[in-house]
Amino acid sequence: MNEDIKSTIEQALATFRFNPEGLIPAIAQQFDTGEVLMMAWMNEEAISASFKEERVVYWSRSRQTLWRKGETSGQIQYLKEMRWDCDGDTLLVQVDQKGVACHTGQRSCFFSAVRDGKIKTISTVKIDPSKLYK
Amino acid sequence: MNEDIKSTIEQALATFRFNPEGLIPAIAQQFDTGEVLMMAWMNEEAISASFKEERVVYWSRSRQTLWRKGETSGQIQYLKEMRWDCDGDTLLVQVDQKGVACHTGQRSCFFSAVRDGKIKTISTVKIDPSKLYK
What we know:
Two copies of one chain form a homodimer. By secondary structure, the first copy, chain A, is of the alpha+beta class. Chain A contains three helices and eight strands, in the order H-E-E-H-E-E-E-E-E-E-H. The first copy, chain A, is 20% helix and 34% strand. In chain A, strand 5 (77-84) and strand 6 form a beta hairpin. The model of chain A has no long low-confidence stretch (mean pLDDT 96). Chain A binds chain B through residues 4-5, 8-9, 11-12, 15, 25, 27, 29, 33-36, 38-39, 51, 81-87, 90, 92, 102-104, 106, 109-115, 117-119, 122, and chain B through 4-5, 8-9, 11-12, 15, 25, 27, 29, 33-36, 38-39, 51, 81-87, 90, 92, 102-104, 106, 109-115, 117-119, 122.
């Protein structure tokens, strides 16, 4: 990364309002279709790594470590653009999702809905989850 | 609401994993264009009220009260469908947003981005904010 982009990232980080744990929610949206794929959390380090590596890096709250999306499963999210909201406490990350975002093998994690008065699964499994994590 | 939908909402609520404050993040997405408009928080009462009133009701963390989106500004979010993710800790609400979602008068709250190495405002004010809150 050149100095200009480093300075821009520092400026952006200074704008963000992290929660008391130093985290900010990050919504991943497929950049060209608008599909919302998942929501996870980032800290400063994850945000910097996402820009540097041009792929989405979250902070895993359960494992307390950086989580390079797709590192194990191969289902990488390439970073297209990072956006944030008016009060700087939520990120909307424009991504190019290879394969599927969800560990269940569905494209999006948001596959459950109340529809026609019932709870329904509104999409289908695209990749056998046993093939995602060997 | 009839008994069937009440029972469905109860089933859905039992699936959701609220945080220690009893809240769950809710992403609002315009149902027909896919535009992500904002993220706010809901509790059980806000979710039930959203279904009952067919408009989106959040929980205001700053005011500690139900927040009927658009009650003051007129910029109502009609509820089209409620979705949630694989681990039940985030909602993706499909809405029909009248006017604008953001208090700044922008359509979406996510109007800031790192683009071409710089921080940019990527949309324009649609309604003069002084006309939203009199």
